[in-house]
Specification:
The chain contains one helix and four strands; from the N terminus they run ββββα. The chain is α+β, with helices and mostly antiparallel strands and about 80 residues long. It has one domain. The strands form two sheets. It has a two-stranded antiparallel sheet with strand order 1-4. Strand 2 and strand 3 form a beta hairpin. The longest helix is centred in the last third of the chain and has 10 residues. The termini are far apart.
């Protein structure tokens, strides 16, 4: 999570097909050579380099028009919606 946007211990993003608008609930970190390391529930981790810089403006911020949608969709693709 971007250091300027830390609010709690969770990272959240709307899941694919959710009724929520496309926006960063929690902006990913950008401080490691324009990328971050992500760990997944199955125990593996990956280094992801961002297409666009992650510049924190506010919580719940819009997707920047600088190509950031590609990064957003990539992170979103790693989220599975809740099942009942």
């Amino acid at each position: 999570m971007h250091e300027d946007g830390i609010l709690d211990s969770l990272f959240g993003i709307p899941w694919p097909g959710s009724p929520f608008p496309d926006q960063w609930w929690d902006l990913p970190a950008n401080r490691h050579n324009q990328g971050c390391n992500l760990s997944f529930a199955d125990g593996h981790a990956e280094r992801w380099r961002w297409v666009a810089p992650k510049i924190f403006i506010e919580l719940g911020q819009s997707i920047a028009p600088n190509g950031e949608m590609k990064d957003y969709r990539r992170v979103q693709s790693g989220v599975r919606p809740a099942t009942n």
